[in-house]
Design a protein that fits this description.
It is built from nine helices and 23 strands. Strands 1, 2, 3, 5, 8, 9, 10, 11, 12, 13, 19, 22 and 23 form a 13-stranded mixed beta sheet that branches. Strands 4, 6, 7, 14, 15, 16, 17, 18, 20 and 21 form a ten-stranded antiparallel beta sheet that branches. The longest helix has 18 residues. Strand 17 and strand 18 form a beta hairpin.
C-alpha cells in the first residue's frame, strides 16, 4: 500500500498568487465542471480543476488527510504576493459524518480566485509554472423545469415515529439529546448544473457559507471552526424556529425562542461540547453565558460564538476533527448519540453534517458543518437533500418534522425555477 504522505511529496506543486482587479461575482467565474466554492457575503474563494486530490475513509480519515496535506504543503514551491487568508496554496475539503461512509476528499484546484475585504487575487497551481487564465463570467443555467421531490427511504410519518422512539430513549435516561436527520430526493428533468443552485443560495443567504466540493453543495449557517493567525472561532447553532414572514410576529417568535427551555437545553449541550473540544488546544477562551438569536430568511436559531487563542500546533483541519461530531449534529453524550443515530435513523448521511471548507498551507482555514446541503448523485439527474433536528426530552414529533421541512427550504428553492 502506498504512503499518502510520500505520494504527496513525490512531485512538488508550483503555486503563484498575485493580485487581481475586482472580478465581480465569484460564482459567475466558475466553469460547469470541477467547480469548487466557499463564499460568504460576496467574499471567499472559488476554484476549478484538480492539481491534486486525496480520498480517504474510516476512523482515521482526518489524520490521514492532515498528513497528506502537511506533506504536500511542505514540499510545494509557493510565491504568494497577496498574503491574505485564502491566498497561496489551498485545498477544499469535505468529510463524511460517520466513520463507516466513503466519500471524504481534499481537492487542490488548478485555479483559485479569491476576494477578501476589497483585496482580490488569483492563484495558479500545478506541477510547473502555469499561465494565468483569462477570466470571463459565464452565467449559470437556470434550474430545469419539472423537478419533483419525494421522501427518501424513510417517509415523513415513519420519521416522526423514529423521533418518538428517540424521545422515549431520552426519557429512559440513555442520553440527553440526539440529532435525527431525514432526506428528500429531487428528480431533475436534466442533469444539474450546480452553479445555478449555488448562485441562488449565495444570493438568498449571504450571511451563510455557500459551498461546493465534489458534488456536495449547500449553504451552511454554522461555522464549525475558523483558525486565522492564531485566533480560533466556532459558531454554535442549536434551537430553531421557523419564520412566518411577518416581522412583528417573527420578533415575538424570536423572543419565545430565546426563552424556550427546550431550545436553551439543546443549545447548552451544543455549546458545552464545542468548548470542551477546543479547550485542549486553546487559551483565553470566551464562552458567552447566553446565546443570541440569528435571523435567517427561513428560520431563526439560537447562536453562540465561542472564541479562543491557539496554544499548540493544531491546524484548522485538526481542530475540525476534534470538534466533529459536535452535539449540534450528533447529540449528548456523543458516543451514545452516534450509536442511536446508527440504530434508528435508517439513513446514509454521506457528507451531510460533516466538516466542509478549506485549509491553507499555514494550517489556517475555515470549516463549516455541511448543513442546508445536498448531494448530487452520479449521473446528475437526482439530488439528495438533507435536514436534521435536535431531539431532547420534550420534543414533539410533528414539531420536529415542521422544523426539518423549514431547513429543507433553502436547497429545495434553489433547485426550483422561480
Amino acid at each position: 500500500m502506498s504512503n499518502p504522505a510520500l505520494d504527496a511529496a513525490a512531485v512538488p506543486l508550483v503555486v503563484r498568487s498575485s493580485r487581481l482587479d475586482d472580478p465581480g461575482d465569484l460564482l459567475a467565474l466558475l466553469p460547469p465542471d470541477d467547480a469548487l466554492a466557499w463564499v460568504h457575503g460576496g467574499d471567499g474563494i472559488v476554484g476549478w480543476g484538480r492539481a491534486a486530490e486525496f480520498r480517504t475513509s474510516g476512523a482515521e480519515r482526518f489524520s490521514e488527510a492532515s498528513e497528506w496535506w502537511r506533506e504536500l504543503a511542505a514540499h510545494a514551491v509557493v510565491r504568494d504576493d497577496v498574503d491574505v487568508p485564502g491566498s497561496g496554496l489551498v485545498t477544499f475539503g469535505s468529510f463524511t459524518f460517520s466513520d463507516d461512509a466513503d466519500g471524504s476528499i481534499l481537492v487542490v484546484p488548478e485555479v483559485v480566485i479569491g476576494r477578501r475585504d476589497g483585496v482580490a487575487w488569483i492563484t495558479v497551481i500545478g506541477h510547473g509554472i502555469g499561465s494565468v487564465p483569462d477570466l470571463e463570467a459565464s452565467p449559470a443555467s437556470l434550474p430545469a423545469e419539472g423537478t419533483t421531490f419525494a421522501d427518501g427511504p424513510v417517509d415523513s410519518v415513519t420519521w416522526q415515529g423514529l423521533v418518538a422512539q428517540a424521545v422515549s430513549r431520552i426519557a429512559a435516561g440513555e442520553l440527553d439529546k440526539v440529532v435525527l436527520a431525514r432526506d428528500l430526493v429531487a428528480t431533475l428533468a436534466e442533469p444539474l448544473d450546480v452553479r445555478a443552485p449555488l448562485t441562488k443560495l449565495a444570493g438568498d443567504y449571504p450571511s451563510c457559507w455557500t459551498f461546493h466540493v465534489d458534488g456536495f453543495f449547500g449553504s451552511t449557517p454554522e461555522m464549525l471552526v475558523r483558525l486565522e493567525r492564531g485566533l480560533v472561532t466556532s459558531r454554535v447553532l442549536a434551537g430553531t424556529i421557523r419564520r412566518t414572514g411577518d416581522d412583528g410576529h417573527d420578533m415575538a417568535l424570536a423572543g419565545s425562542l430565546a426563552r424556550s427551555s427546550k431550545d436553551l437545553e439543546e443549545h447548552e449541550y451544543a455549546v458545552r461540547s464545542v468548548a470542551d473540544a477546543l479547550a485542549p488546544h486553546c487559551t483565553s477562551m470566551n464562552v458567552p453565558e447566553a446565546p443570541f438569536v440569528l435571523h435567517l430568511p427561513n428560520v431563526m436559531h439560537l447562536a453562540t460564538d465561542v472564541t479562543g487563542v491557539i496554544k499548540d500546533e493544531a491546524s484548522a483541519l485538526t481542530l475540525a476533527a476534534s470538534l466533529h461530531p459536535s452535539a449540534a449534529v450528533g447529540g449528548t453524550p456523543t458516543p451514545e448519540a452516534v450509536a442511536l443515530i446508527a440504530e434508528l435513523e435508517q439513513l446514509d448521511r454521506g457528507r451531510y453534517a460533516g466538516p466542509v471548507g478549506w485549509i491553507g498551507a499555514s494550517g489556517d482555514g475555515e470549516w463549516g458543518i455541511g448543513l442546508r446541503s445536498a448531494q448530487v448523485e452520479a449521473d446528475g439527474s437526482q439530488v439528495r437533500l438533507f435536514a436534521g433536528c435536535g431531539i431532547v426530552a420534550d420534543s414533539v414529533p410533528a414539531d420536529e418534522l415542521a422544523e426539518s421541512n423549514a431547513k429543507l427550504i433553502p436547497v429545495r428553492d434553489a433547485l426550483t425555477p422561480r
